[in-house]
Design goal:
4 helices; 5-stranded mixed beta sheet; Alpha-Beta Plaits; 206 residues
Length: 206
């Protein structure tokens, strides 16, 4: 089977090739052609597709921060250690909403791996769309899953990419998880092409 690929056009759209599974936030299947152009400036009148608005608004796709994408902190517990990468986080908040006993925004350290059952922690980490969370057990690191290539559009949020879709960027911009990552759709992320949660700050809507 040929790889599904995403190419990032300079100051322009995402060019996706070979995608078969494309869903909106309602779970409705969209029918992609073999090659589609997806808006990432946030201003298309035909979202999620590009309509050329990036040229009108003089959109810049430049990354505005200089932090390495692979930077992570490890929170060690008795049975499991949780790896947290703040740089790549899209702030989907699945972790704090589903397991607030472990992921505690108002406390420091904000992650305590000993405050829930092992299976519950693993289940929540697997729901992290950006690849910011992973875990290790007995020094073996678990990050990726075995899934078919797909792009799922988060409501008023990013493109959540799963299934080892190949992102055609230079090595230093490769996501920590090549199996799943979140790409900016609102145009406001400072960590382009990845989502950094800026869609919430600017109240981005579809």
């Amino acid at each position: 089977m040929e790889n599904v690929t995403i190419e990032i056009m300079e100051n322009g759209p995402l060019i996706v090739t070979g995608l078969k599974n494309f869903q909106n936030w309602k779970g409705e299947e969209l029918s992609p052609k073999d090659r589609i152009a997806l808006c990432r400036c946030g201003e298309s009148a035909n979202k999620p597709y590009c309509d050329g608005a990036h040229a009108t608004i003089e959109f810049s796709g430049e990354r505005e921060i200089n932090r390495p994408l692979a930077k992570e902190k490890i929170y060690q517990g008795k049975d499991i250690s949780i790896h947290d990468n703040r740089v790549i986080c899209s702030h989907a908040a699945e972790c704090v909403e589903l397991l607030s006993s472990v992921f505690r925004l108002e406390e420091r350290p904000w992650i305590d791996p000993d405050r829930a059952e092992l299976d519950s922690i693993i289940e929540v980490i697997k729901k992290c769309p950006s690849g910011a969370l992973s875990y290790s057990i007995n020094e073996k690191h678990y990050r990726d899953q075995d899934r078919e290539p797909a792009i799922q559009i988060a409501q008023n949020g990013p493109y959540d990419v799963i299934g080892n879709v190949v992102l055609k960027v230079e090595e230093e911009l490769q996501p920590p998880s090549k199996e799943h990552y979140s790409l900016c759709r609102c145009g406001a992320s400072k960590n382009k092409p990845f989502c950094d949660g800026a869609h919430r700050d600017i109240n981005f809507t579809d």
